[in-house]
Write a structure and sequence with these properties.
Layout (H helix, E strand, L loop, with lengths): L1 E6 L5 H9 L3 E6 L4 E3 L4 E3 L2 H8 L4 E2 L7 H8 L5 E5 L7 H5 L5 E5 L7 E2 L2 H7 L4 E8 L9 E8 L5 H21 L14 E2 L15 H10 L6 E5 L2 E11 L15 E2 L4 E9 L7 H5 L12
Parallel strand pairs: 1-2, 1-6, 2-5, 6-7, 8-11
Antiparallel strand pairs: 3-4, 7-9, 9-10, 12-13, 13-15, 14-15
Length: 299
Amino acid sequence: MRIVFMGSPEFAVPSLDALVEAGHDVVAVYSQPPRPAGRGKGERRTAVHERAEELGIEVRTPRTLRDAEEQGRFRALDADLGVVAAYGLILPLPILEAPKVGCVNVHASLLPRWRGAAPIQRAILAGDETSGVTIMRMDEGLDTGPMLLKRELDIRGKNAGQVTDAMAGLGADALIEWLARPKPPVPQPGDGVSYAAKIDKAQTRIDWALPAAEIERQARAFAPVPGAWFVVNGERVKLLAAELGVWEGAPGEVLDDRLTIACGAGSVRPLKVQRAGRGPMSPDELLRGFAVPRGTILP
């Protein structure tokens, strides 16, 4: 098939690779424009942009697809199918209807649960044990189109980075499976709908008044980036992994010399933390020369 691929982050790269390896003709790749990143604020291209150039595929990076001229350029590609995976731009109706058989999306949840921008993080925060990937036919709604194929994934104990990597491969496999053996679309049920709103930066700060189980999930949901964080000794420290404890104390109280911290119910013991400008480390490494005495109350 003549396919236009539309994606941006690392999650989408396996789907692009799978299309090429399966022999499809990827006539163009659309990705988010390069943006300033890093300390030097130099422009950084997306993972999909980098991979498409390695594959010798034309890359287009419009800031909007609502422009009539841009829509005309898209139609001129004469694609059979549009494939979308975490692209980051809304596709207006003229784009959705331009390919001969429409557009499909590789979505990182078991629809209709977790429609929207941050399905992996929301699933972990909610304590879901199972999530997965849905190949869906796109319409003008927010992930409301009919489903073409679903594949489940056990996400217990995994952080967002691990789940994203697993779902990237699962989504690529499901996409190729559907292309090889298309099945009729199935409308999404009306029950079980939930929305995965974009993560606000304020949600990444740890509130020690919450139950320990919620804080442990928060650490996993935001690891490795942007990282759930707390303040100790006036410095912001990321909590990248933690385990639950049964010890009690005032919320935010440091309970021992291993940095076990009391929560609204129970406690958490950090397993991996990160200071600003440094790599991930164990609590023992953090506490060398960075004293946090027992009884300290963290804000």
